[in-house]
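Chain X:
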Amino acid sequence: MTRDTNEQLRRFHGDRVWMDAMGRRDIYGKAKSNRNRLRNGLARDGKPTPVGSATQGSYAMRTMIQNDDGDYDVDDGVYFAKEDLVSPNGGVISALAARQMVCDALQDRRFSEKPEVRNNCVRIQYAKPNSYHVDVPIYRRNRTKHPYTGVITDKYELASADWKESDALNVTKWFKKRNEETSGDTSRDGDKGQFVRVVRLVKAFARSRPHWSGKIAGGFALSRLVSDHFVESVDRDDVALRNVLRAIQDRLAWKDWVAHPTLNENILPVGSAKAKFLRKKLGDKLPLLDVLDAPNCTHELAMKAWDKFFLSDWFTNQPDPDDEDELDSKTTRGPTIKVGGQGYA
C-alpha cells in the first residue's frame, strides 16, 4: 500500500505553495489602484470610459502560488463598449491604438518604470523588493440584442496583434465549475478543493527548477491538463497528485497539444516543445516517488522523495507522525518533560 503522506503534502501546500488571502490582498490592492489611475487618465485625455474591469487568470482562478523572487503578477482586464472605441474620423480604432490609449492613461511620474505596451496587454512593473507586475489586457464588448426575443448577448475581443475573440471571464467560470464538479471539499470563493490544490502543486513542480523557466508548459496549460485528467482521491492529495501527473505524462505521449477550454483554439499547438519538455521532466522526476509504494517505505525515505521531487528542503524537516503519537502517549501518562529549560505537562 502506498505510504500516506497526505498530511505532509497538505502542510507543504499551505506553507510553501498556496498564496493566502493576505498575500492576495496586497497584490489586488495594486490592481485596484491602477483601475482608478486608468479611469482618471482616460478622463484627463478625453478618452472613452470603461464599462468595467475584472481580474482574470491565476488570480481569479485562485491558482496563484508563492514565488521566492517576489515576482507576482495579476491580470486585470479593462472592458470598453465597441461603439466607444472610434477614431476622430469615426472609424474603428486598431487593437494597437487601444493598447496605446490605455498605456498613455496609466502613465504616472511616481512609477520608477513607465507602463509599456506589450503584445496582449499593457504592463505596469513595480520595483523590487515587491517586484509585482500588473498586466492590463484591453477588451471591447460587442453587445447585440435579438430582434424577436430581446435577449442581449455580449461577445468580447482582446486587443492583441489584431482584435481577436477572447473571454477570460468564461475561463474563470469554467475553472471554478470544474473545481465544484470534481472536488467534495470546495468553498464558495474557490480557494478550497482538492482539484484546485492539485493544480497549485502541479504549478509548483513546474516552477521548482529555475532553469525550466520558459521551457515548460505555463499555468493555463497545466490547469487544463489537470482538468482533463483529475480524479478525486478523498483525503489523499498525494495520491490524486501522482495519479494526475502519470495521466498527463501518458497523454502527452500521443497528444502533445492543449486545447483552450472555452474557445476553438489551442493553448499549446500541435508539436509543442513546452508540452514535450513537461512530459520529459515528468518522466525524469515521477520515478523519484516510486519509493512511496514500497512496503518498507519509512517516513524518512518518503520525505526525502518529496523533497527531491519539488527540489525542496521542507519535507525532511517534518516530524514522523508515529513518533509524535508515541510522544503524545508518554506526555499523557508520564511526568513533566523538560524542553528548553521549561516544563510542559
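Chain Y:
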Amino acid sequence: MLRYAFFGPVGTFSEAALRTVIGSDDRQAPAVAMSSVDATIEAVRTGAADVGCVPIENSVEGGVPATLDGLATGDPLVVVAEVVIPVSFVLAVKPGVRLEDVTRVSTHSHAYAQVRHWLHTHLPEALYVPATSTAASAQSLAAELDGGEPAGFEGAICAPFAARRFGLDVLAERIEDREGAQTRFVLLSRPGLEAMPAPTGNDKTSLVVFLREERPGALVEALEQFVTRGINLTRIESRPAGDALGRYCFSIDCDGHVADARVGEALMGLHRVCEQVRFLGSYPRSDGGRTITGHGPTETDFTAAQGWLDRLRNGSAS
C-alpha cells in the first residue's frame, strides 16, 4: 500500500487534486497533510511518503516557486502524474458573522491575487492576513468554534469543500476575479519506486536545464534542441540557480514522452550542450490538450533514421 502526502492542511486544493487520483477512502490510500510544499517534497525524498501531491502551476499566477525550486535541487524526484482542477473561492466565516462584520480576511497569497477585485468591490477596507494555505485560514476560524485561540481575522478565502469540511458559513461564492482559473498539480515519487507511465500519444515531459556558461546564445542553443525536432514547449520558466547572482536554471515542460524518438534525441542534444539536465519524468497530459508537433519529420521518420544509423554502425548495407 502506497503512502501519500499532500500540501495541507486538510481541505486544500492539493488534497482535492490527490483525491481525484486515489479516491476518498483513507483506509485504502492513507494520505497525510504536510505543513508546506517543501515538507511534502522532503517527505517523499526521505521515504516518509511514497507519493506527494503539490501545486506546480496556476493559470493566473504562473509557476509555484517552492515546487519548481524543490524539484531543481536535492535528490532527484520524478513526476508520475499530473492533475488539473478548476479553482473557485468562497468567503467563509463563523456562523452568525455578517459581511459588514468582516474587517480582516486571510488566505494564501496566490488565492489573494485571484480575488483582489472582488475584495476591492465588496470589502474595500478589509485588511489582508497572509496564511500558509487556503485551508489554513478556514481551519483557524474553525478552531475558534472549538474554543481555540482567536484567528485574528473574520473571513477566510478558501475552497468550497474546505468551508464545508470545517463547518463554516459561506457569505459569497465564486469570488475569483477570472472565471475558468485552473491549478495544475503533480504527483511526485522517488525514481524507480513506480514504473514510468507508458506513452499514450498525448504526453508531457518535464525537465530542469542548467546552462553550461553565461554567453550570448546559450539559451537559444538549448531551445534549438526542441525546435529542430519539432517539439512544442508547453511551459518554460527561469529560476535562480542559487549559487550566484545572474545564474539561472530553466524549468521546462514539453510535449511528448521520453520513449518518443524525437524527445529522446532532444534530451541527448541538451545533454551535449548544457551543464546539467535533470529529467523529471514523462506522464500523460490531464488537461485534455493534444500533442503538437512542428512541420517536417514525423515520429516514424525519426524512428526510421535511428534504424538506418544502427544498421550502418553494424556494418549492414545502407
